[in-house]
Amino acid sequence: MASAAASRLIPPSAAAALADLVEEAERVADAARALDGVADLLVARADDLSGLQVGAFDEVMTVLAEGAGPASLGRLARRVGALPRPPRKLARRLACDPEASVAVPVLARCAALPEEVLLHVARSRGPVHLAAIARRETVAARVADVLADRGDEAVMAMLLANRGAQLSLSALTVLSERMQDRGRLAAGLAARQGLLPRQRDALLRPAARSGPSRRAAEAVALRIRLGLDEADLRHWLADGRVAEALIGLAHLAGCPAERVEAAHRAAGLRALALIVRAADLRLSTLGAFLRARPGPAPTPEAAGLAVQVHRTVTVARARTMVAEPPEAGTAAV
Length: 333
Hints:
The protein contains 23 helices and no strands.
Protein backbone atom coordinates (compact mmCIF):
# COMPACT_ATOMS: atom_id res chain seq x y z
CA MET A 1 0.00 0.00 0.00
CA ALA A 2 1.22 3.50 -0.82
CA SER A 3 0.28 4.74 2.64
CA ALA A 4 2.30 2.03 4.42
CA ALA A 5 5.34 2.65 2.27
CA ALA A 6 5.03 6.42 2.45
CA SER A 7 4.65 6.37 6.23
CA ARG A 8 8.34 5.48 6.44
CA LEU A 9 9.35 8.37 4.20
CA ILE A 10 9.10 11.47 6.41
CA PRO A 11 12.66 12.46 7.28
CA PRO A 12 13.46 15.78 8.94
CA SER A 13 14.39 17.39 5.63
CA ALA A 14 11.43 18.69 3.64
CA ALA A 15 13.45 18.40 0.44
CA ALA A 16 14.16 14.72 1.13
CA ALA A 17 10.50 14.17 2.00
CA LEU A 18 9.46 15.61 -1.33
CA ALA A 19 11.95 13.49 -3.26
CA ASP A 20 10.89 10.31 -1.48
CA LEU A 21 7.21 11.01 -2.00
CA VAL A 22 7.75 11.63 -5.70
CA GLU A 23 9.68 8.36 -5.98
CA GLU A 24 6.90 6.50 -4.18
CA ALA A 25 4.28 8.06 -6.46
CA GLU A 26 6.24 7.04 -9.56
CA ARG A 27 6.33 3.42 -8.37
CA VAL A 28 2.57 3.29 -8.19
CA ALA A 29 0.96 3.14 -11.62
CA ASP A 30 -2.52 3.91 -10.35
CA ALA A 31 -2.66 7.68 -9.66
CA ALA A 32 -5.85 7.35 -7.62
CA ARG A 33 -4.29 4.70 -5.37
CA ALA A 34 -1.13 6.77 -4.96
CA LEU A 35 -3.18 9.85 -4.18
CA ASP A 36 -5.22 8.01 -1.55
CA GLY A 37 -2.03 6.70 0.03
CA VAL A 38 -0.34 10.08 0.23
CA ALA A 39 -3.57 11.60 1.57
CA ASP A 40 -3.63 8.93 4.30
CA LEU A 41 -0.15 9.96 5.34
CA LEU A 42 -0.94 13.67 5.22
CA VAL A 43 -4.00 13.29 7.43
CA ALA A 44 -2.20 10.98 9.88
CA ARG A 45 0.77 13.33 10.27
CA ALA A 46 -1.04 16.68 9.79
CA ASP A 47 -0.48 17.92 13.35
CA ASP A 48 3.25 17.18 13.28
CA LEU A 49 4.25 18.47 9.85
CA SER A 50 6.17 21.69 9.34
CA GLY A 51 5.12 24.26 6.78
CA LEU A 52 7.86 23.06 4.44
CA GLN A 53 6.72 19.47 4.74
CA VAL A 54 3.11 20.42 4.00
CA GLY A 55 4.50 22.22 0.95
CA ALA A 56 6.22 18.99 -0.11
CA PHE A 57 2.94 17.11 0.11
CA ASP A 58 1.31 19.94 -1.83
CA GLU A 59 3.66 19.57 -4.79
CA VAL A 60 3.26 15.80 -4.99
CA MET A 61 -0.49 15.69 -4.48
CA THR A 62 -1.16 18.46 -6.98
CA VAL A 63 0.68 16.47 -9.65
CA LEU A 64 -1.09 13.23 -8.70
CA ALA A 65 -4.47 14.98 -8.75
CA GLU A 66 -4.10 15.70 -12.46
CA GLY A 67 -4.27 11.97 -13.20
CA ALA A 68 -7.13 11.15 -10.84
CA GLY A 69 -10.82 10.94 -11.69
CA PRO A 70 -13.75 12.74 -10.06
CA ALA A 71 -14.44 9.99 -7.52
CA SER A 72 -10.86 10.03 -6.24
CA LEU A 73 -10.75 13.82 -6.24
CA GLY A 74 -14.05 13.95 -4.37
CA ARG A 75 -12.65 11.71 -1.62
CA LEU A 76 -9.54 13.87 -1.50
CA ALA A 77 -11.55 17.10 -1.32
CA ARG A 78 -13.54 15.87 1.68
CA ARG A 79 -10.31 15.13 3.53
CA VAL A 80 -8.41 18.25 2.48
CA GLY A 81 -11.33 20.56 3.24
CA ALA A 82 -11.35 19.43 6.87
CA LEU A 83 -7.63 19.99 7.50
CA PRO A 84 -6.65 23.04 9.59
CA ARG A 85 -3.53 23.48 7.41
CA PRO A 86 -4.35 22.11 3.97
CA PRO A 87 -1.89 22.06 1.06
CA ARG A 88 -2.70 25.47 -0.46
CA LYS A 89 -2.05 24.79 -4.13
CA LEU A 90 -4.03 21.55 -4.00
CA ALA A 91 -6.91 23.27 -2.18
CA ARG A 92 -7.09 25.94 -4.88
CA ARG A 93 -7.05 23.27 -7.59
CA LEU A 94 -9.92 21.37 -5.96
CA ALA A 95 -11.96 24.49 -5.23
CA CYS A 96 -11.86 25.54 -8.88
CA ASP A 97 -12.89 22.12 -10.22
CA PRO A 98 -16.04 22.32 -12.35
CA GLU A 99 -17.29 19.08 -10.78
CA ALA A 100 -19.38 20.05 -7.75
CA SER A 101 -18.57 16.86 -5.83
CA VAL A 102 -14.91 17.88 -5.94
CA ALA A 103 -15.17 21.62 -5.35
CA VAL A 104 -17.94 21.87 -2.76
CA PRO A 105 -16.19 20.22 0.24
CA VAL A 106 -13.27 22.61 -0.13
CA LEU A 107 -15.31 25.71 -0.97
CA ALA A 108 -17.56 25.20 2.03
CA ARG A 109 -14.96 24.37 4.68
CA CYS A 110 -11.39 25.28 3.74
CA ALA A 111 -10.46 28.49 5.57
CA ALA A 112 -7.13 28.72 3.74
CA LEU A 113 -8.65 29.58 0.35
CA PRO A 114 -7.59 33.06 -0.78
CA GLU A 115 -10.32 35.59 -1.44
CA GLU A 116 -9.25 35.83 -5.09
CA VAL A 117 -9.97 32.12 -5.59
CA LEU A 118 -13.42 32.48 -4.06
CA LEU A 119 -14.10 35.50 -6.29
CA HIS A 120 -13.04 33.54 -9.37
CA VAL A 121 -15.35 30.64 -8.50
CA ALA A 122 -18.22 32.94 -7.55
CA ARG A 123 -17.97 34.72 -10.90
CA SER A 124 -17.58 31.64 -13.09
CA ARG A 125 -19.40 28.64 -11.58
CA GLY A 126 -23.01 27.62 -11.06
CA PRO A 127 -25.47 27.60 -8.15
CA VAL A 128 -24.06 24.55 -6.35
CA HIS A 129 -20.58 26.08 -6.16
CA LEU A 130 -22.05 29.43 -5.13
CA ALA A 131 -24.13 27.82 -2.39
CA ALA A 132 -21.01 26.21 -0.94
CA ILE A 133 -19.32 29.60 -0.71
CA ALA A 134 -22.46 31.21 0.74
CA ARG A 135 -22.42 28.82 3.70
CA ARG A 136 -18.74 29.31 4.62
CA GLU A 137 -18.07 30.30 8.21
CA THR A 138 -17.05 33.74 6.96
CA VAL A 139 -17.72 35.40 3.60
CA ALA A 140 -15.80 38.56 2.73
CA ALA A 141 -17.75 41.56 1.48
CA ARG A 142 -16.36 41.42 -2.07
CA VAL A 143 -17.29 37.75 -2.39
CA ALA A 144 -20.74 38.36 -0.90
CA ASP A 145 -21.36 41.12 -3.46
CA VAL A 146 -20.82 38.66 -6.31
CA LEU A 147 -22.96 35.96 -4.68
CA ALA A 148 -25.80 38.44 -4.21
CA ASP A 149 -25.63 39.40 -7.87
CA ARG A 150 -25.24 35.90 -9.38
CA GLY A 151 -26.85 33.49 -6.92
CA ASP A 152 -30.25 31.90 -7.31
CA GLU A 153 -32.99 32.17 -4.69
CA ALA A 154 -31.46 29.43 -2.51
CA VAL A 155 -28.00 30.99 -2.62
CA MET A 156 -29.35 34.44 -1.79
CA ALA A 157 -31.35 33.12 1.16
CA MET A 158 -28.35 31.19 2.45
CA LEU A 159 -26.12 34.24 2.14
CA LEU A 160 -28.57 36.53 3.92
CA ALA A 161 -28.99 34.04 6.78
CA ASN A 162 -25.23 33.57 7.22
CA ARG A 163 -24.17 35.67 10.22
CA GLY A 164 -20.55 35.34 9.10
CA ALA A 165 -21.23 36.91 5.70
CA GLN A 166 -20.17 40.54 5.46
CA LEU A 167 -23.02 42.10 3.49
CA SER A 168 -22.45 45.61 2.23
CA LEU A 169 -25.38 47.92 1.59
CA SER A 170 -24.78 47.33 -2.11
CA ALA A 171 -25.16 43.57 -1.61
CA LEU A 172 -28.28 44.06 0.50
CA THR A 173 -29.69 46.31 -2.19
CA VAL A 174 -29.20 43.61 -4.82
CA LEU A 175 -30.77 41.00 -2.54
CA SER A 176 -33.76 43.25 -1.91
CA GLU A 177 -34.27 43.60 -5.67
CA ARG A 178 -33.82 39.96 -6.58
CA MET A 179 -35.29 37.85 -3.75
CA GLN A 180 -38.78 36.61 -4.48
CA ASP A 181 -39.43 35.41 -0.93
CA ARG A 182 -40.10 38.75 0.76
CA GLY A 183 -40.81 37.09 4.09
CA ARG A 184 -37.38 35.50 4.14
CA LEU A 185 -35.86 38.80 3.04
CA ALA A 186 -37.59 40.63 5.89
CA ALA A 187 -36.45 38.03 8.44
CA GLY A 188 -32.89 38.15 7.16
CA LEU A 189 -32.77 41.94 7.27
CA ALA A 190 -34.23 41.98 10.79
CA ALA A 191 -31.37 39.76 11.97
CA ARG A 192 -28.74 42.03 10.41
CA GLN A 193 -27.15 44.23 13.05
CA GLY A 194 -26.14 47.75 12.06
CA LEU A 195 -29.04 48.46 9.71
CA LEU A 196 -31.00 51.58 10.59
CA PRO A 197 -34.81 51.30 10.53
CA ARG A 198 -35.03 53.63 7.54
CA GLN A 199 -32.50 51.53 5.66
CA ARG A 200 -34.41 48.35 6.43
CA ASP A 201 -37.65 49.96 5.30
CA ALA A 202 -36.06 51.12 2.05
CA LEU A 203 -34.71 47.64 1.35
CA LEU A 204 -38.13 46.09 1.88
CA ARG A 205 -39.94 48.37 -0.57
CA PRO A 206 -41.07 46.37 -3.60
CA ALA A 207 -39.35 47.14 -6.90
CA ALA A 208 -40.57 46.38 -10.39
CA ARG A 209 -38.39 44.11 -12.49
CA SER A 210 -38.43 45.19 -16.12
CA GLY A 211 -35.04 44.35 -17.54
CA PRO A 212 -31.37 45.20 -17.00
CA SER A 213 -31.64 48.98 -17.58
CA ARG A 214 -34.61 49.35 -15.26
CA ARG A 215 -32.93 47.14 -12.71
CA ALA A 216 -29.79 49.29 -12.80
CA ALA A 217 -31.83 52.47 -12.31
CA GLU A 218 -33.75 50.90 -9.43
CA ALA A 219 -30.54 49.70 -7.78
CA VAL A 220 -29.09 53.20 -7.89
CA ALA A 221 -32.34 54.79 -6.71
CA LEU A 222 -32.41 52.50 -3.70
CA ARG A 223 -28.75 53.17 -2.99
CA ILE A 224 -29.43 56.91 -3.15
CA ARG A 225 -32.07 56.51 -0.44
CA LEU A 226 -29.53 54.62 1.67
CA GLY A 227 -26.73 57.11 0.97
CA LEU A 228 -24.88 56.92 -2.36
CA ASP A 229 -21.16 57.71 -2.29
CA GLU A 230 -17.98 57.31 -4.32
CA ALA A 231 -17.28 53.84 -2.93
CA ASP A 232 -20.50 52.55 -4.50
CA LEU A 233 -19.41 53.73 -7.94
CA ARG A 234 -16.00 52.09 -7.50
CA HIS A 235 -17.66 48.86 -6.38
CA TRP A 236 -19.99 48.79 -9.39
CA LEU A 237 -17.13 49.46 -11.80
CA ALA A 238 -14.98 46.74 -10.22
CA ASP A 239 -17.84 44.24 -10.68
CA GLY A 240 -18.53 45.26 -14.28
CA ARG A 241 -21.83 46.96 -13.43
CA VAL A 242 -21.07 50.00 -15.56
CA ALA A 243 -24.73 51.00 -16.03
CA GLU A 244 -25.19 51.47 -12.28
CA ALA A 245 -21.91 53.39 -12.02
CA LEU A 246 -22.90 55.81 -14.80
CA ILE A 247 -26.35 56.44 -13.34
CA GLY A 248 -24.79 57.01 -9.93
CA LEU A 249 -22.23 59.38 -11.45
CA ALA A 250 -25.03 61.38 -13.06
CA HIS A 251 -26.74 61.75 -9.69
CA LEU A 252 -23.57 62.90 -7.92
CA ALA A 253 -22.66 65.31 -10.73
CA GLY A 254 -26.15 66.77 -11.02
CA CYS A 255 -26.65 66.08 -14.72
CA PRO A 256 -28.84 63.78 -16.85
CA ALA A 257 -27.86 60.13 -17.07
CA GLU A 258 -28.08 60.32 -20.88
CA ARG A 259 -25.34 62.91 -20.91
CA VAL A 260 -23.09 60.78 -18.75
CA GLU A 261 -23.65 57.74 -20.96
CA ALA A 262 -22.85 59.79 -24.08
CA ALA A 263 -19.65 61.10 -22.47
CA HIS A 264 -18.64 57.57 -21.53
CA ARG A 265 -19.05 56.41 -25.14
CA ALA A 266 -17.53 59.51 -26.78
CA ALA A 267 -14.18 59.32 -28.54
CA GLY A 268 -12.83 62.20 -26.43
CA LEU A 269 -12.37 62.04 -22.68
CA ARG A 270 -12.84 65.70 -21.78
CA ALA A 271 -16.59 65.54 -21.14
CA LEU A 272 -16.29 62.46 -18.93
CA ALA A 273 -13.45 64.03 -16.94
CA LEU A 274 -15.54 67.15 -16.42
CA ILE A 275 -18.51 65.14 -15.13
CA VAL A 276 -16.31 63.15 -12.74
CA ARG A 277 -14.90 66.44 -11.45
CA ALA A 278 -18.40 67.87 -11.04
CA ALA A 279 -19.23 64.88 -8.85
CA ASP A 280 -16.18 65.75 -6.70
CA LEU A 281 -14.66 62.31 -7.20
CA ARG A 282 -10.99 61.40 -6.93
CA LEU A 283 -8.64 61.15 -9.87
CA SER A 284 -8.37 57.39 -9.28
CA THR A 285 -12.13 57.11 -9.81
CA LEU A 286 -11.77 58.91 -13.13
CA GLY A 287 -9.20 56.26 -14.00
CA ALA A 288 -11.68 53.51 -13.08
CA PHE A 289 -14.29 55.04 -15.42
CA LEU A 290 -11.72 55.31 -18.21
CA ARG A 291 -10.78 51.64 -17.82
CA ALA A 292 -14.47 50.69 -18.02
CA ARG A 293 -15.00 52.46 -21.35
CA PRO A 294 -15.80 50.31 -24.39
CA GLY A 295 -13.25 50.04 -27.18
CA PRO A 296 -9.47 50.43 -27.10
CA ALA A 297 -7.66 51.94 -24.16
CA PRO A 298 -7.16 55.73 -24.27
CA THR A 299 -3.93 57.03 -25.71
CA PRO A 300 -1.48 58.62 -23.23
CA GLU A 301 -2.22 62.01 -24.76
CA ALA A 302 -5.99 61.65 -24.32
CA ALA A 303 -5.61 60.35 -20.77
CA GLY A 304 -3.26 63.23 -19.97
CA LEU A 305 -5.84 65.75 -21.18
CA ALA A 306 -8.51 64.12 -18.99
CA VAL A 307 -6.19 64.34 -15.97
CA GLN A 308 -5.51 67.99 -16.74
CA VAL A 309 -9.23 68.78 -16.85
CA HIS A 310 -9.77 67.02 -13.53
CA ARG A 311 -6.92 68.91 -11.87
CA THR A 312 -7.50 72.40 -13.24
CA VAL A 313 -11.29 72.82 -13.17
CA THR A 314 -12.85 73.50 -9.77
CA VAL A 315 -15.78 71.39 -8.60
CA ALA A 316 -18.08 74.42 -8.55
CA ARG A 317 -17.09 75.41 -12.10
CA ALA A 318 -17.47 71.84 -13.32
CA ARG A 319 -20.97 71.58 -11.85
CA THR A 320 -21.95 74.79 -13.61
CA MET A 321 -20.55 73.54 -16.90
CA VAL A 322 -22.25 70.13 -16.82
CA ALA A 323 -25.56 71.85 -16.10
CA GLU A 324 -25.20 73.81 -19.38
CA PRO A 325 -26.15 72.37 -22.79
CA PRO A 326 -23.52 69.83 -23.89
CA GLU A 327 -22.11 72.02 -26.64
CA ALA A 328 -21.56 74.97 -24.32
CA GLY A 329 -20.18 72.87 -21.47
CA THR A 330 -17.71 71.06 -23.73
CA ALA A 331 -16.47 74.21 -25.46
CA ALA A 332 -15.84 75.95 -22.18
CA VAL A 333 -13.41 73.33 -20.85
